[in-house]
Amino acid sequence: MRELKNGVLIIGTDLGYGNVKSSGSITRSSVDVYENEPIFTDNVLIYNGKYYRFGDGHKSFIEDKSVDEDFYMLNMIAMAREMYRAGIYEAKVHLATGLPLTWVRGQREKFREYLMKNRDLWFRYKNKEFHITLVGCSIYPQGYPAIVERLSEFKGINVLADIGNGTINIMYIKDKKPIESMCWTEKLGVNQCVMRMKKAVMDNMFATLLDSVAEDYLRHGTAEISKRYIDLLHKEAVGYVRDIFDALARHDYNPQTMKLYILGGGGCIVKNFGEYDADRVTIITDLCAAAKGFEYLAYLQLRKKV
């Protein structure tokens, strides 16, 4: 979160299918709605007389994030958690967020209207009353903002791969400048790997694998499960990383002449199960890097106006 001289707060939110992030919080991208107070009240936000609980699962992939209310509420909990962390409960807020690279031009205005359809937000979270007045919304392409503050490293030709839960965004950057004609979005997110793991366990073990077990294994490279399960999961994880590098190769990535920067939740999978030259591949492990980047870009643009 950044503050302009006029008192407006800039809050960045990275609205992914696996997690939503602010610069200082991570929440799993699921929303459950209750008419009455739920039994378990962690991560519960009260808005318009309804109880919204977040964090029990993930959001299914959809090609238009504005088709239902889920991302609207996920954006609200990201703002709430960021303000609660700072002890601020009333503020004018300029929202800074993003969309997949190839969606920005076609969906930017629609998504901005969706997020700002209510300028005055009153809600309750963590036994605190919040009042947010939205005064603006900037929407950027995902991926690039996460590395904008370290562009001094980007000499020659670099490839940026942002591996989220639903998609992988690929962008070429030449001499610190993004090449708009060389940007792609593919449905090859982490959830694809989880689905393959679950299918492998069902086909070979006739058992159901919980998403949380698969995700823990991908995140840490190990899990408290039997060796037979480990072997199955390892095979699928290695195959998934191979598919990521195959996708990069289809878009002309050459590890000998280009450096690769990997960010997003899929970075840990490449780190744990991939084969690559560590001198030419950088894995950015900060999952909040994109939200911080959105804030930084918005701050640079808005401070001039202020």
What does this structure look like?
- This protein is of the alpha+beta class.
- 34% of the residues lie in helices and 29% in strands.
- Helix 3 (190-205) packs antiparallel against helix 5.
- It is globular, with a radius of gyration of 20 Å.
* Rg, nearest Å: 20 Å
Helix-and-strand structural type: alpha+beta
Q: The CATH topology of the largest domain, please?
A: Nucleotidyltransferase, domain 5
CATH class assignment of the largest domain: Alpha Beta
Topology of this protein?
Blueprint: E1 2-3, E2 9-15, E3 19-21, E4 26-28, E5 31-34, E6 44-47, E7 50-54, H1 70-86, E8 90-99, H2 104-115, E9 120-125, E10 128-141, E11 157-163, E12 168-174, E13 177-186, H3 190-205, H4 211-220, H5 227-250, E14 259-263, H6 267-273, E15 281-283, H7 289-305
Parallel strand pairs: 2-8, 8-10, 11-14, 14-15
Antiparallel strand pairs: 1-2, 2-3, 3-4, 5-7, 6-7, 6-9, 9-10, 11-12, 12-13
Primary descriptors:
306 residues; alpha+beta; Nucleotidyltransferase, domain 5; globular
What's this, in brief?
Helices cover 34% and strands 29% of the residues. With 306 residues, the protein is α+β, with helices and mostly antiparallel strands.
